[in-house]
Design a protein that fits this description.
By secondary structure, the protein is α/β, with parallel strands linked by helices. About 35% of the residues lie in helices and about 20% in strands. The strands form three sheets. It has a seven-stranded parallel beta sheet with strand order 5-6-7-8-9-10-11. Helix 5 runs parallel beside helix 6. It is globular.
Length: about 325
């Protein structure tokens, strides 16, 4: 862990607008700083406490202060991400992900119905055609009975897998058993990145694959250790980051030998702006693996208000103290 002043010396706090509301927010606040290996990102969501956020700081320091591991590929195939929008908005959003053959559709949104989910998934299938891949992400929004009902309603649209349909490991194991006869895979996300033991879900046989995110798990090296020990296929995903944060995820994805699924690393396309003029967005359904240097003018354009900068600096100080302990 570098000294705190080495981190704070180059800190820039930016507030980047989104194209449409996502995860309940319209603006994404992130902190960027530069280490010996290049620029890195610290961007836990605002509601996360210091203990959880400290893992994100560990990841940012790892990427900024340590050389990335050797890579197996120079580009990574990625999926489009479809927020919980109305069916009439689906085509316009998916147009922002050129060449992507896979779409992750958000479902189980608070205040919406299963009928809304069906309409959204149907529109995505119409857009992709029969050869495209559709995966669902419920963000633990269903109980087991609701998940079973929803999966049966959405299965006719030829699903690749369902991500985190329920909240607990026991519930995931239950729903996996209930839908096993359908040949439908269950993926775990929150049960990995928010768990005190990220390997519990794998040991319990509660998922067919894991969704792995570099920042919440403490960085590339810790994520690779989890992937290696879990022994399951993985999808490397992002956390609505700028291109600098996405670069970390791409280096993680590129350093995994077997990567059978398209990765969820195209979320810069959900932002209305970025911190670089050469954003990490899909071309032909894939993104090149490279580090990113922010553009000074863009950093200035999206600099957060002084009180927000102070808030983020204080957050870094608290998380840094936790990591030192």
């Amino acid at each position: 862990m570098p000294p705190l002043h080495d981190i704070l010396a180059s800190v820039r706090v930016v507030a980047v607008p989104l194209r449409q509301r996502f995860r309940g927010i319209d603006t994404r606040e992130v902190t960027l700083f530069e280490g010996p290996e290049g620029w890195t990102e610290f961007s836990p969501f605002l509601e996360y406490d210091d203990e959880e956020s400290s893992m994100w700081l560990a990841a940012a320091v790892d990427f900024g202060w340590n050389a990335a591991p050797p890579i197996f590929r120079s580009s990574v195939r990625v999926n489009a991400t479809l927020p919980a929008v109305g069916a009439e908005q689906v085509a316009g959003i998916l147009d922002q992900f050129p060449g992507c053959r896979t779409v992750k559709v958000k479902v189980a949104e608070s205040g919406q119905s299963l009928a809304d989910d069906v309409a959204r998934v149907a529109a995505a299938r119409d857009y992709l055609g029969p050869e495209g891949r559709i995966r669902l992400d419920a963000n633990a929004g269903w109980n087991v009975d609701e998940a079973e009902h929803a999966i049966h309603a959405l299965a006719p649209y030829d699903l690749e897998y369902v991500e985190q349909p329920c909240a607990t490991v026991d519930e995931l194991a239950d729903i996996r058993k209930r839908v096993k006869y359908m040949g439908l895979a269950i993926a775990a996300d929150e049960s990995v990145r928010k768990a005190s033991d990220p390997l519990e879900v794998a040991r319990a046989g509660a998922a067919n694959l894991l969704v792995i995110k570099a920042q919440p798990l403490g960085g590339i090296r810790r994520a690779l250790a989890i992937v290696d020990e879990a022994g399951l296929p993985v999808v490397i995903s992002s956390a609505l980051e700028t291109s600098i944060g996405i670069s970390m995820g791409l280096h993680l994805a590129a350093s995994i030998g077997e990567l059978p699924y398209d990765c969820g690393l195209a979320t810069v396309s959900l932002l209305a702006a970025d911190v670089t003029g050469d954003s990490l967005v899909p071309i032909g359904g894939a993104i090149d693996v490279r580090r990113v240097v922010p553009d000074g003018a863009l950093l200035d354009s999206y600099t957060a208000d002084p009180e927000r900068r102070d808030w983020w600096r204080a957050r870094i100080e608290r998380c840094h103290a936790l990591l030192k302990e």
